[in-house]
Amino acid sequence: MFMFLFLVVALVVVVGAVTLTVVGGGESGALPEASPERFQDPLPADRPLHRADVEMLRFPVAVRGYRMGDVDDALGRLGAELAERDARIADLETALAGARAPGSHSLEKPTEDDQR
């Protein structure tokens, strides 16, 4: 019985000390308010994105996953750059097809049939 009372008193003392510390009864006062993590956009604005830029992209974790606004902004930027690159590739392929068309000036050497 004595051991049981000793354990109950020790438990009450420990719970009380922890409660006072957390609530602000200690010397340092109350715990400071934690500042929420904010997304620091590491994507470079002065040059096109590279694979390493996307691989290094990390989002701060929120209560229910990631902040939708941060993810939407990053995906919007990636989508715009991909659309720009696709348009540039299409333009270059069109120019290349026009250069290879019959009767156009080509950079290829003339064949024997062309010289006759």
Automatic annotation (TrEMBL):
Origin: domain of life? Bacteria
* InterPro entries membership: DivIVA_domain
Q: Where is the composition biased (Basic and acidic residues)?
A: 106-116
> Which residue intervals make up region (Disordered)?
26-46, 96-116
Name of the protein this chain belongs to:
DivIVA domain-containing protein
